[in-house]
Specification:
The complex is a heterodimer. By secondary structure, chain A is mainly alpha-helical. In chain A, about 75% of the residues lie in helices and about 0% in strands. Chain A is globular and about 50 Å long. Chain B has one helix and ten strands. In chain B, the strands form two sheets. In chain B, strands 1, 2, 5, 9 and 10 form a five-stranded mixed beta sheet that branches. Chain B is globular, with a radius of gyration of 18 Å. Classes of the chains: A mainly alpha, B mainly beta.
Chain lengths: ~200, ~180
C-alpha cells in the first residue's frame, strides 16, 4: 500500500518536472503555470486517494480537501488567464476535453460533499462507500482523460505518466468497490453500522 | 448501483454528442509546404465563381469565435513566419469581395491571442492572407480566429474559431458574408 502511494507521489513529481521544463510553459503567465502545476499535483493525489481508504482514513480525508482546493485553484487560474476561453470551455459548446473536465469538477464537488455530510446522511456504510467510491472513480477517469487530451505542457512523456497515474487510481477504486460489494467492508470506525462478513445478526 | 450506471450512461452520451474541438469548430490546417512570407499566396479556386444563380451559404459566427477579440487590430502587421492563414471572402452569390477587412488573431510561442493580431484587406480576388508564427495550444489545442468585424460596413460582422494541428503550415478559413441590415 505504502509503495503504491509512493508511486503516486513519484508520478506527481514527474508531472511537475515535465510541466516546469516544457517549452509550452517557457513564456507562460504565472496564472497558467499555477493552473498547470495544481492540475499535476491533483492528478497524483487522486491516484493515491483510494489506496488510503483502508488504513489511512484521516490522511484520505485531508488529501480529499487538498484535491478540492487544487482543482478550485486550477479552474480559477484558468479564468484569470483567459476569461473568454475559460467560460467557453465550461459552456455546453466547449470541446469534449473541457466537457470531461466540467463533469469531473462537478462530480468532485459531489464526492467532497458526500464526505463532509457522511454522518448526516445516515446511509449504511457500504452504500455510502459505494456511491462515494464510484463517483470518485468517475472523477479519476474524466479528470485524467481530460488531461491526456489536452495539448500543451504534458505532451510526450507526460501522457504515459498521466495514464499510469490514472490507472493506479482506477485500480484502487475498483479494488475498494469490490471489497465493499463482497463483504460490506467493515472498518473499526464504522461503529456498528456494518457487520463484518460472516457475523450473524444478533 | 442503477443510479450510478445511469449517471455513467448520461455522461457517456453527453461526451459522445460533443464536438471534439468545440461546437462548429473544425480543423482547417494543412500540413503542406506553404510560403511563409512574400506576396505569392496559395490560390485555391473559388467554389462556383461567377456562375449565375449560384449560392454560397452564409458563414455563421461559431461559439468561441469572439474569444479574446479586440477591436481595431493594427493594419497588415506581420505576425511571423511558419503558418499562413488565408481564405476567400465572398457574398452569398459566391462572388469574391475585394477590399474587405478581415482580422486574424491566434496564440503563438511569442504572443497571446490578445496581442498577436492584425487586420488585412482582401485582394481583387477576394483573398486575404496573414503570415504568422505557428499556432500553439491555447486551452488545449492550437486555434485561429478569423473575423470580419467592422460595425458600420456594408457587410454583417462574423467571427470564426477553428483549430489547426501544431505542425500545420497553412490554415484556410473562407467567409461568406451577408449584407448588413
Amino acid at each position: 500500500m505504502r509503495a503504491l502511494v509512493g508511486a503516486a507521489v513519484f508520478g506527481g513529481a514527474l508531472l511537475v518536472t515535465l510541466g516546469l521544463t516544457a517549452p509550452h510553459l517557457a513564456r507562460a503567465s504565472p496564472a497558467l503555470l499555477v493552473s498547470t502545476l495544481a492540475g499535476c499535483v491533483a492528478v497524483a493525489a487522486l491516484a493515491a486517494q483510494p489506496w488510503l481508504t483502508r488504513r489511512r482514513v484521516p490522511a484520505h480525508v485531508r488529501l480529499g480537501g487538498v484535491v478540492a482546493v487544487l482543482v478550485a485553484v486550477h479552474v480559477l487560474a484558468l479564468v484569470v488567464e483567459s476569461p473568454d476561453d475559460a467560460l467557453y470551455s465550461m459552456s455546453p459548446d466547449g470541446p469534449t476535453r473541457a466537457r470531461m473536465a466540467l463533469f469531473a469538477t462537478v462530480l468532485l464537488a459531489v464526492v467532497t460533499l458526500l464526505g463532509l455530510l457522511r454522518r448526516r446522511l445516515r446511509w449504511s456504510a457500504p452504500t455510502w462507500r459505494f456511491v462515494h467510491g464510484s463517483l470518485a472513480g468517475l472523477v479519476v477517469v474524466l479528470g485524467v482523460g481530460h488531461a491526456v487530451l489536452i495539448q500543451g505542457a504534458l505532451d510526450g512523456w507526460g501522457t504515459p505518466v498521466l495514464l499510469a497515474l490514472g490507472g493506479l487510481g482506477v485500480v484502487g477504486v475498483v479494488v475498494r468497490l469490490v471489497m465493499v460489494l463482497r463483504t460490506g467492508d467493515a472498518m473499526p470506525h464504522d461503529r456498528g453500522r456494518v457487520r463484518p462478513a460472516g457475523e450473524r445478526p444478533g | 448501483m442503477v443510479a450510478v450506471a445511469l449517471l455513467v450512461a448520461v455522461i457517456a452520451a453527453a461526451l459522445w454528442r460533443s464536438d471534439e474541438s468545440g461546437t462548429g469548430a473544425r480543423n482547417v490546417g494543412v500540413e503542406a509546404a506553404a510560403p511563409a512570407a512574400g506576396p505569392a499566396a496559395p490560390q485555391a479556386p473559388l467554389a462556383v465563381p461567377g456562375v449565375p444563380g449560384a449560392t454560397c451559404p452564409p458563414t455563421v459566427t461559431n461559439p468561441g469565435g469572439r474569444n479574446n477579440y479586440r477591436e481595431n487590430a493594427p493594419l497588415d502587421v506581420p505576425l511571423g513566419r511558419g503558418l499562413v492563414i488565408t481564405g476567400v471572402v465572398r457574398d452569398t452569390g459566391c462572388r469574391p469581395l475585394p477590399g474587405v477587412p478581415v482580422q486574424v488573431w491566434l496564440q503563438t510561442a511569442l504572443g497571446s491571442e490578445r496581442e498577436n493580431r492584425t487586420t488585412v484587406l482582401t485582394g481583387p480576388d477576394g483573398r486575404y492572407r496573414v503570415a504568422s508564427d505557428p499556432a500553439v495550444a491555447q486551452f488545449g489545442e492550437p486555434n485561429v480566429h478569423v473575423a470580419h468585424d467592422p460595425e458600420d460596413g456594408p457587410w454583417a460582422s462574423v467571427w470564426q474559431r477553428h483549430v489547426v494541428d501544431p505542425d500545420a503550415t497553412l490554415a484556410v478559413v473562407d467567409l461568406t458574408l451577408v449584407p448588413a441590415s
